[in-house]
Amino acid sequence: MTEGFTAVDLTCSTPPKTASNGRGMDFEQPIFSVLTGGLRAQQAGGTTAVTVGTTSDTESGIFSAESELCVEHDSELDWFCGTDQKPVCSECASSGACRGHAVTPLATRVTAVRNQLVDVCEKMQLQAKRIESFIEQTLSTKEQKLQSAASRAREQVLAQISAVREALEEEEQRLLEEVQREEERVEQCLLTQRAHWNHALTSLTQTRSHLVHTLTHTPDAQLATSLQEIAERVEKAEGVGEPRDTEQLSLNSACSDSKLLRGLWATALLLGPKAYRSPHLKFDERTVSPLLSLSEDFCTLTFLHKKSRQPLPYDPARFDCWPNALGSMSLSSGTHTWVVDVGQSGAFKVGVCYASLERKGSGNEARLGHNGQSWVLSHYDGDYSYCHAGKKVPLQVVKRPQKIGLLLDWPSQTLLFYEPDSNAVLYSVTQQFNAPLLLACAVTDDSITILHGAGREEMSNVR
């Protein structure tokens, strides 16, 4: 070695690994980082790493790709400067531009690069084999499993749809037959009533005609002695009675009631492709009782204890005695649903009412569920019930729901209460609503929150 400079080994810190010598390789290391990252890591220990590439003569002014001699010293380029990443001659290394730099014999450098390239090529070959194996084995197996899984899924769908279709067809047949029987029963009642009252009308008409004739054509002396006959005819006429409409003359709506059909119908509305998700429904702050507080987003009602209550300005729309509040949207068409989070509240009511519901006083006229203008699901002291017009229907709830859902289908005049997590129907009622409906809620323990509301058709503000 030429005096005045020190040779430094630029080979990788890890000896090259080849398949021919039987040593393993680090297959987790990225392929193209081997040349750059592996050698560069040695700089901290006094050895300079290199990258594959060629420094052009325009960058260095010393090395020319067309010559293996140093342009400055006309000497062989038999050393490699790790600092400048270029081949140099011994003169450059000892006393020239690369003096004091980390250098190594060019042959050593080339050997290290070749060994690295061998490793890279071997890793590429092994990676190619892994890819081929993945394509031929894994993907092929996955494709077969996919076909089997898809086939099973199709069979399951068809089987479930077939079961639902079969049940619906049987239920359809049963309900149509029930409606037909009820229709025939009412028709028979109507025929019977028609025949009875036609006969009564004829008898009454004849009796009246006879009495009118007696009144107008009978001599006074004879009329005075006809009281017994007249009394008998009057008694007969009075026996006809007054006609009255009865429930027997109307179709019983229960003939078309079906838990199966109602459940499937509700599920289709709640989970079908046109489920409702528009969060528009909120509480109208004008209606909120002074016993409650309303959150800033107008969605949460909280029961206030006596010390927390503050007087509110008079408003004809505000409930003054009962802890009630109404929704801000009136519902008079389409299909709508909303969910109220009742949390751990031990006393609440959730339902609908007419806008004409009384707001003042402590009477039943303003008490939800105790008048003919409100329909609510009530929870108090662990018991659940449906309340309307002062009548309660106890509900069997297997698990205490954290949320109560309401579904109002205006075309069918159906109000349905359900449990959103399972979509289980808690209670449903079909009634002829004769005015727009508002969400109606009450709470006397903790708080309740409207989570969302929606509708397929217009929901207009009642204010």
TrEMBL record:
Coiled-coil residue windows: 154-192
InterPro entries for this protein: B30.2/SPRY, B30.2/SPRY_sf, Butyrophylin_SPRY, ConA-like_dom_sf, PRY, SPRY_dom, TRIM/RBCC, Znf_B-box
GO MF annotations, alphabetized: ubiquitin protein ligase activity; zinc ion binding
Gene Ontology BP annotations: innate immune response
Entry keywords, A to Z: Coiled coil, Metal-binding, Zinc, Zinc-finger
SUPFAM superfamilies xref list: B-box zinc-binding domain, Concanavalin A-like lectins/glucanases
Pfam families (UniProt xref): PRY (PF13765), SPRY (PF00622), zf-B_box (PF00643)
Domain B30.2/SPRY span(s) in chain numbering: 260-459
SMART domains named in the record: PRY (SM00589), SPRY (SM00449)
Residue ranges occupied by any B box-type domain in the UniProt entry: 65-106
One CC-aspect GO term: cytoplasm
Protein name: B-box and SPRY domain containing
The species this protein was found in: Oryzias latipes (Japanese rice fish)
Gene: bspry
